[in-house]
Amino acid sequence: MRLFTTLFCAAVAASLCAKPEAFTVGKGTFLLNGEPFIVKAAEVHYPRIPEPYWEHRIQMCKALGMNTICIYVFWNFHERAPGDFDFSGNADVAKFCRLAQKHGMYVIVRPGPYVCAEWEMGGLPWWLLKKEDIRLRTNDPYYLERVGLFLKRLGRELAPLQLARGGNIIMVQVENEYGAYAADKSHVSNIRDLVRAAGFTDVPLFQCDWTSTFKRNGLDDLLWTLNFGTGADIDGQFRALKEARPDTPLMCSEYWSGWFDHWGRKHETRSADVMVKGIGDMLDRNISFSLYMTHGGTTFGWWGGANNPAYSAMCSSYDYDAPINEAGHVTPKYEKLRALLQKHAKAPLPEPPAPPPVVTVPTFALDRAVSLFDTLPAPKSTEAIRPMEAFDQGWGAILYTTELPRAAKKGETLAIDEVHDWAQVFADGNLLARLDRRKKEFAFTLPADLPAGTKLDILVEAMGRVNFGGSIHDRKGITNQVKLGNDVLTGWQVFNLPPEHAFVAAKAAKPGAHPSGPAYWVGAFDLDKVGDTFLDMRDWGKGMVWVNGIALGRFWEIGPQQTLFLPGCWLKKGRNEVIVLDLKGPRATTLRGLDKPILDQLRGNLSDTHRKPGQALDLAGETPALETALKAAGGWQNLAFAAPAKGRHLCIEVRSTQRPGPVAIAEIELLGPDGKPLPREDWRATYADSEETRSGNATADKVYDLQESTFWQTTPDAKAPHAIVLDLGTETQATGIRILPRAEKGAPGQPKDVRIFLKTTPFKL
Ligand code: GLA
Ligand code: CA
Fold this sequence. Notes:
765 residues; alpha+beta; 8-stranded parallel barrel; 6-stranded antiparallel beta sheet; 10 helices; binds alpha-D-galactopyranose; binds calcium ion
């Protein structure tokens, strides 16, 4: 009888059972209208899907067997200048929620204000950095004031859509993985209060963290959920939470289906079978989940973020190896997951809707062009170098120009402190050097003598602002100063080159021009049938593409992404206009549209491994700061040195593992004199005897990338002992070390016997 009533009510909910539904937290389970309810949420991001495709993607999630859509709200997408709010078009988040409701889907809202998400500055607006001493994600009064204003405005859009008020929003998140950033309950409390003050008072509020960090900031009155990825040991992940809160409903608020791609690094994938098994294990245990990402989509325009350390900007594609691919198509992962979710569903799942049509576009020429240097805007003057933000520019490229005050000798050093993020240096128009922040290239030696008065141009392209860790305070352009030898250069002219279409569209490109170096290229193609296509960028260097006025995204020849997703809903029958800004310069000035993406082609000498041919670490005669055996257990292990040690070069030697097989380490922290972890922003891997690069991105730098789900791993055939060497950037005092093994069941690859060395001079290689 009760089942009948529920079905009946569900069927006529909209019309007859007008009483709003209720979503509450019960003992060990969520409750929907008083009945146990497992949240099966699909994470998708509305700015990463063209607005005309929103409904299609929601239906895809529904047909997959999900009952909820989980979204972040991207503050910087809505407030591009202080107080200037936009909730229209692709930013109409309320419309997105209502479309989900139309298809019977609940919504979880994660309004940040910080969201991470491989999104520019983790969703925080760049203009916050105009305040020079701002401390983001703290109780800095200006930060809290701006957060409050934004959330209040967001509340006008979304608070009326809470379930109890007739909408479909069932949960709202407070901050995002704050435990991975700081320990400060007062800050999380402040954000919670601002979320409530914005009107989110009728839904359970929750905070998400990692199993290793959730206690740091756990507030008594918030629900706690955990994030972890494909392959993780589910019982192990929830053990500590169950102990801390035996009656809480369990939820994995981010179960990572795949992973994101960085420029210059191997395309990431995760096994479909392992992913589906994890979801099955959760369902068997009545654990709710949100699948991050169920559909990743595309980080259009300039919205891609970056990780640090090492600085590493995100690709434009956010395919994520998710069940629904970048263009909204079913994948084998989708089919496997759907089969599982069908087993757990009460009724047959609807069929997935057909994807939007795909077209190819024959090769066409970008036959008009203009050199970037021939179409500069009016300059601003500044004595000292200042970052982009100081000139009221958020994104794009920036040109700094001055004249050499004296003659410079071949072999002298020109040091740019620091390049954020990719610079080209020209002397009287001739290219001298290219500097890449990913490789910490901040200086070069002059290839020739230069006379006094030489015109020096430094063109800096901003890639994404860092979206994770303390480096989110990531100012762009040149952050500090430029030095020729010991002389700080002054007297600069600064040209702002923003990425908005209005700026690039005003460039007077000329037919038949063929500039070399940085230039705008303009062309068009005709269509008699519109459809999705993938722009083939393989002949182009590095830059950004606009089609019919919309910024599609960044391209970079190094890959792994070689095509840009061009949604058919932004195309039209007849003429379509294309602009390419190529800062490096193309090999051919044509484009075409393919019917498939290319997301996995790395090019050039891009090896991210840390062992040069012939190198072998020689530890003979070195004295370890610590020689010990780790316990056979998952999670962090703290190891104290016998006596405090000092040095800049750290070596971790793994002499044996707990079980046969390759060595793996997920994260390492050094403990300072106060016993607290030391900052890792300046760390750099200088050596690893073995690294797995065939089946993964498992290089040595993954032990300090702040991500607990990524790890250094040796190749299967390499024999212990294994070692990695890190340059810490500065002389450091340490009293111990913490080591985290992989998160999978049994902590695969966990070291047993280790020796740790810390010394002032580099190791013998
Ligand atoms: C964390 C963050 C997400 C995202 C994922 C990785 O869990 O909360 O925003 O960055 O990592 O994709
Ligand atoms: Ca890691």
